[in-house]
Design goal:
The chain has 390 residues and is of the alpha+beta class. The strands form four sheets. The chain has a three-stranded antiparallel beta sheet. A three-stranded antiparallel beta sheet has the order 8-10-9. The longest helix has 19 residues. Pfam families: Rep3_C, Rep3_N. Keywords: Plasmid.
Length: 390
Amino acid sequence: MAEGPSSTRLTGALKRGSVKKNVAAIHVSGKLTLLQRKLSNVLLLNAYDTLTTRSQHAIDARTLCQMIGYNSNDMETLKTALRGLAETVAEWNMLDAAGREEWGVSSLLSYAKLKDGVCEYGYSAALAEKLHDPKVFALINLDIQRRFTSGHALALYENCFRFVRTGSTGWWSLELFRRLMGVDDSDYYKSFKHLNAKIIKPAVAEVNRTSDILVTPETRKQGRQVAEIRFRIARNPQLSILNIDDGGAVRAGPVYARLRALGVGDRLARQWIAEHGEAAVAAKIAYVDGRDGVRSPVGYLTAALQEGKTPVEEPVSAPEPGSRAEQLRRVQEIIARRSPTQRDADRRLFMSQLDSAEARTDFERHGWMSPLNAKAILAFWQELQPDAFG
């Protein structure tokens, strides 16, 4: 009998800040939306350590939303994304240990359900075995994943990152590339001109701006037509992937101990401390401790850290009425009440009003908590909903 879920805390593989993504799964996930792709990666990370020993896995639904950068009470959108994963077919064509070809097909999730604030889900035994195979995988960093705003860009990143050690993807036929990007059933993208303008160039630009790698496309023609494409890959020195040492210094500190007491996994605790600094994490812990009625402190802390660092030179206290911090808190409340469609429209409208590339980049990384755009953000929302600020 399969062991059922026993806890909604961040445990097991969630101690890691990255997830092994099997090549076969990457190759068939091109048609997933950005939200579904992020969701698929977090669910796999959560289940990874027990993929082949359990048929059921579970994670707190709010924590799940926060880990994919979707801070919302809109469970209908989460249900739609889960339904999409259950309805999406994964197909693999791999060689086994004896060199024999194996073809297989399975839904990405065998089932998913939401009950009492918990997301429970499972994989078919055959797909779980493939997803757990350590021989061929891409390492997906979840902090980097959250920065992507385009599904095509995240698909390109996933399919390029596994070749970072060799420096090149090797040549792909355009048919295969369209499949990896999830546009193989579109006549429009059979034209390389359209494919290049709408898929390749925007995806390359976002990968290079957002992630820890730099990709450069190269094409090869057959006659007059472009027939193949490959991507040169180099590390992005400005956004190198977070490497966490396994020394004992961080574990010996009081901030690490407090995180572990809250139920944060070992690796995730060390990642937060390395990324934000002990003082900032301690300030956020104090902020969460001061909130009454928090059902999921780990989820709340995840959201608090994603909003940005608390200045260590200032005491952590409730924002003064009328202060910028209080106004930004109200902005967050307004956004939380809006539908996903409205939130997307809000972001697009605000982005269209930003004049500099630096401002746009900061907003892409930090959203409505962008420090560089704080004044413009308040002006935008005061004009949109002036009654919300008193």
